[in-house]
Structure formats: structure tokens, C-alpha cells
Amino acid sequence: MRNDRTKGPGRPERRERSAGRAGQTPDAARRPSSATPANEPAPVRRDSVEEIARENRRDRPAVEWPEGLRPRFAAPVILEVEPGPDYALLDSGDGEKLERYGPLVIRRPENQAIWPRRLAPSRWDGADAIFTGDTDEEGAGRWRFPREALGETWPMREDGLSYLGRFTSFRHVGVFPEQTVHWRFMTEAIARERAQSGRPVRVLNLFGYTGLASLLAARAGAEVTHVDASKRAIGWARENAELAGLVDRPIRWICEDAVRYAEREARRGSTYDIILLDPPKFGRGPKGEVWQLFEDLPHLLVLMRRLLSDRPLALVLTAYSIRSSFYSLAALMGEAMRGSGGTVESGELVIREEGEDARHLSTSLFSRWVSA
Ligand SMILES: C[S@@+](CC[C@H](N)C(=O)[O-])C[C@H]1O[C@@H](n2cnc3c(N)ncnc32)[C@H](O)[C@@H]1O
């Protein structure tokens, strides 16, 4: 499974570490900073990422797996994103993809696209923005704008909600379009529950990034808790909330390590009706905490089970991981949700190309427990 979001293996290659910014991928954390001038003291040797991770987990109790029957299983479930007015995959091939994000056509690397292209070279060359990746610095410098110079952001919409697309140095654009299938599923569940029971629906969005899921949930009438380790990502999410006219909605913006936050919420006895979690393969908390998908996910998922309310609606997990299969996510979800009835649906998120003879671009694996 290709991973557009976490680049390179999640293991450290050097014993020294630059502290690494919160939310950062291992490549970014490992990227050498400018050389230390000769007259400055050599950097203090710090623990390696593995040592920090071990230290973080040292006092963690063994995972308490729930008992009872496993939920029903439904797999494979392929959730497909179709071309639409806000987003379309126009073409893919030869290691790249050509997409339309609102008003802009964007060309980026895509190593899943190992097939030939369908569209003429002129369509590809006419893109508004091309990710070049040819500098190793933060910012929009890794993009080329052949038609006219563009700023870092541009106006976008998702299901009528306004937000900002953004050229980031990691080739991301501030939104992962395949997530729209989860967002629609979630907003429908919120609307149904509110219509049927009238009770407030509480949503927890862990690893919330630029906040679209949080904003769509809030617009659907939910009370939302949005957690991300990166101050910058929280800033972008709040900017999006302003643009969407949703600043007065009940959204708590929390800049914290996802596992630490979940542990605290579990101690406090907080509960949620819907939980979304979209963890990277590797990430950093604001206090240097280390997140490693395969090592930390079992602990986090069982914590999520404890955070589900007594009338839960869904627990949605997506993984952009190269070493996994949806069967692994399904098996883990099944264990975490033993004794709770419902169904575990698992499969892939794919995006369908626009036009005739369209192909599917696979983006990620998912597993979701649904109360029904
Ligand atoms: C893959 S993105 C999530 C994308 C989002 N769900 C969406 O579809 O728009 C991963 C996010 O996790 C955050 N992150 C990384 N490590 C974290 C940690 N230890 N705790 C909390 N958030 C973390 C990053 O800052 C980033 O915003």
C-alpha cells in the first residue's frame, strides 16, 4: 500500500536526533539542519527515537483486551471517491497523478500509478502547480507554478464548506480527498442520530490535521474534540473554521500527543459517540513523544474502545501504511470491539479517475466498527 503521507521507514538511522517538530514525519525529523558552525559546541547527544519511544511506553500497562464475541465482519469493503466539482482525479500514470482541487489542476508524484497515462502530455504540462520536491526546505518552494505564481493557499470547498487548500513541502495539499467517504458516512450518522434521539452527538477526531472532519461534524450538529500534535496544523484548522463560518460551534482544539490525550480522557471517564482516527506511520507529540503506528496502535485502539459512549455510533480507523493489509486492521478492530455487537467493515479507500475507462487509485486501508 503506498503511503503519500509518511515517507520512508519509521526507524531512526542516527543516534543523535534533532528534537523534531510535533506531528513531523521521520524524514522531516531526520532531515539535517544547517551544519553547526565550528565555534559552537557540538550538539548534545540525545536519545534515539527508539529510546524515547521505549521510555514513553515504559509505564504503560499491558493492553487490556476486551472479552466477548467479535463483531460481525464485512470485508473487503472498497470505498470509492468519484470525480466531483470539488475534487477529481483527472489522470494517473508513470509515477504521477493529475488532480483538480477546486479551481486548480495539480500534478504530484504517485508511486502507486505504475500504469501508462490516458491524457495528452499537454494536459499534464498545463497543470497550475507541479510538485518538484527539488529543495529540502519547508514551505512552498518545492512547488513550481508554470502558469502564474500562486500563493501558499487557495480557496477550496468540501460539500459546501469553505476551507483553504495549501501547498506544503511534503507534497500534501491540506486535504486527503479519499477521506470524504468517511466524512459523509460520519455526517449521515450524526444527522440520523440527532433526528432519531435528539441527543447531542460527541465526536473525537484524533490526528485531526487541517480539521475538515471536525468542521463537517460540527456543521452536522455534533460537539467535537479535535486533537493534533502540531501547533501549525491546529492553526490551519482554526483558520479553516473561520473561513467556514463555524468558529462559534462547539469544537475544542487541542494541541497534544494523541496517546497522552486519550489516556487522560480514559482516566477522566470522558466518552464519545463517534471516534475518527487517522494516524500517520510515524509522528511526534508536542513534548517529543514518539508515535509509531505498529507499536502504539493496539494500545490506542483499546483506549478508543473505552472512550466510546454507552450508545456509540462508530469508530473509524484509517492507515496509510506500506507494511499492512486491511486484514490486520480488521483483526485488531475485531479484538478491540469484542462484546460490543455491531459490524467491522474493512477494506480500502480508492479514488476513481474522471472520464471514460477510468481506473482506481488505491490510497489507504481502513477498518470501521459500526454499531448497526
Ligand atoms: C495523516 S494526517 C491526518 C489527516 C486528517 N485525518 C485528514 O484526513 O485530513 C496526520 C496528522 O497527525 C498529526 N500527528 C502526528 N503525530 C501525532 C501525535 N503523536 N499526536 C497527535 N497528532 C499527531 C500530524 O500533525 C498530522 O496533522
Q: What is the structure about, briefly put?
A:
This protein has 372 residues and is of the alpha/beta class. It is built from nine helices and 17 strands. Helix content is 26%, strand content 27%.
Describe the structure.
Helix content is about 25%, strand content about 25%. With about 375 residues, the chain is an alpha/beta fold. The protein folds into 2 domains: about 1-30 and about 45-85 and about 150-370, Vaccinia Virus protein VP39 (Rossmann fold, 3-Layer(aba) Sandwich); about 85-150, Immunoglobulin-like, CATH 2.60.40. The strands form 4 sheets. The protein has an 8-stranded mixed beta sheet, sandwiched between helices. The chain has a 5-stranded mixed beta sheet with strand order 2-3-4-5-6, with no helix packed on it. Helix 4 (about 180-195) runs parallel beside helix 5 and helix 7 (about 260-270) runs parallel beside helix 8. The radius of gyration is 21 Å and the shape is globular. It starts with about 25 loop residues before the first helix and ends with a strand. The structure holds S-adenosylmethionine. S-adenosylmethionine (SAM) binds near residues 23, 228, 257 and 284. S-adenosylmethionine binds next to helix 5, strand 10 and strand 13.
